[in-house]
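Customer escalation, tier 2.

The customer says the design service returned an amino acid string that "doesn't look like it belongs to this structure." They asked us to rerun it and document both sides in this ticket. The original structure tokens are below, unchanged.
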């Protein structure tokens, strides 16, 4: 009895806050659900959950879109590749003799012609060597003349049997020795003159000079690894790139005919044409790892728009398709069934039309089937369109009707002529 009476007050004092917390949490969740339902109700009511107009557009309203006319034009067929600008000639100019570098006769970045003086090495040591070689030759030449005169006298005495034959033979050998000495002196003179010539360093090719690697006052040696400077030919210049193996027959036929192929070198964005040249050289073997063959295109590069070792986008023009239907590339959409376009009708409604596409040239796409020249297609705002939507193109409705008349189509909503294949 005593225990029961004591537990009753404790049960009465047990806290109730867990139940209050659960109640408040349930009330908050319920209120949030009602708020969310109220916010989503107008959207579903406007368009329906199964495909009304997209958000931001009233039912029955026009959709603003960009558009363009399908036209007939000549479209080049191209091969696109990545290439490297490669100079036809590039020379590291090194000294061929050892000596003090006395002067430089160029400025960095200067254009030079073949034979222009670039640097001067102290020539005095080579001048001394040349003088010594000339003196040695003169001495040996004098000895040779004297030996020949003695040999002539000995031959006379031998005919009179007044001298031993051995003495005549020895004198003849001495003449030959002096003759050889004179020839050696001639070679020494030529070597000294060559060293003196090499002391004047001239440009071996025409081109543009890079950064210098030595300054006057330094001792230079023959065959220094860094050399004195580098000359790179920049005009003309070449671009080396790889062509896919399937394109070889057409490329070889064009090159074999002597015509070459027109090649465009474009910047990294593939938008600006830097230079136009000609493809005339193919490598003699295919790279089995990549299935490509290296090619070299030659560019005049008179304005030096192409820089050695620059990466460029290369476009080789194989042929030209005459009078094909083209549209902006942005007009082509792709779905599960293939490419299609949105065609703007005379009543300014759009319809999805499957097409077959051909060659692509930059922003121009060939449409080989499914579209007529003069028909207007949507190029911008296609993500907001559905079949049968009313649109407002970037002209007026009168402009669209004018386009329809130009294409030979009725201005009313009648059926258009079937596209020619």
């Amino acid at each position: 009895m005593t225990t029961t009476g004591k537990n009753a007050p404790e049960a009465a004092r047990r806290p109730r806050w867990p139940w209050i917390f659960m109640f408040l949490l349930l009330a908050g969740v319920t209120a949030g659900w009602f708020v969310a339902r109220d916010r989503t109700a107008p959207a579903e009511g406007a368009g329906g959950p199964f495909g009304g107009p997209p958000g931001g557009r009233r039912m029955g309203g026009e959709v603003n879109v960009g558009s363009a006319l399908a036209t007939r034009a000549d479209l080049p067929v191209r091969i696109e590749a990545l290439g490297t600008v490669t100079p036809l000639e590039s020379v590291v100019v090194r000294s061929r003799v050892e000596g003090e570098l006395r002067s430089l006769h160029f400025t960095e970045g200067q254009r030079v012609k073949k034979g222009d003086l670039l640097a001067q090495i102290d020539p005095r040591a080579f001048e001394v060597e040349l003088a010594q070689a000339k003196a040695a030759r003169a001495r040996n030449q004098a000895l040779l003349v004297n030996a020949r005169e003695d040999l002539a006298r000995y031959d006379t005495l031998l005919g009179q049997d007044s001298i031993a034959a051995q003495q005549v033979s020895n004198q003849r050998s001495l003449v030959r020795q002096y003759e050889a000495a004179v020839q050696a002196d001639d070679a020494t003179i030529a070597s000294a003159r060559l060293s003196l010539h090499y002391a004047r360093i001239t440009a071996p090719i025409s081109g543009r000079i890079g950064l210098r690697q030595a300054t006057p006052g330094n001792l230079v040696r023959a065959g220094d690894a860094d050399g004195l400077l580098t000359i790179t030919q920049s005009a003309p210049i070449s671009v080396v790139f790889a062509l896919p193996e399937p394109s070889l027959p057409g490329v070889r036929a064009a090159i074999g005919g002597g015509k070459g192929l027109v090649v465009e070198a474009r910047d990294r964005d593939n938008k600006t044409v830097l230079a136009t040249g000609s493809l005339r050289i193919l490598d003699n073997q295919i790279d089995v790892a990549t299935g490509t063959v290296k090619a070299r295109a030659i560019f005049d590069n008179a304005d030096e728009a192409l820089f050695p070792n620059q990466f460029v986008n290369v476009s080789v023009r194989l042929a030209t398709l005459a009078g094909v239907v083209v549209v902006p590339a942005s007009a082509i959409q792709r779905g599960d069934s293939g490419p299609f376009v949105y065609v703007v009708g005379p009543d300014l409604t759009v319809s999805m039309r499957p097409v077959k596409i051909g060659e692509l040239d930059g922003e121009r796409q060939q449409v080989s089937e499914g579209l007529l020249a003069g028909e207007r297609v949507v190029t911008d705002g296609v993500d907001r369109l559905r079949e049968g939507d009313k649109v407002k193109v970037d002209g007026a409705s009168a402009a669209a009707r004018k386009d329809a008349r130009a294409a030979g189509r009725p201005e009313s909503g009648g059926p258009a002529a079937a596209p020619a294949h």
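Tier 2 assessment: The sequence is consistent with the input. The mean pLDDT is 83. Helices lie at 2-12, 17-47, 124-159, 165-198, 248-256, 397-406. Sent an explanation to the customer and offered a walkthrough call.
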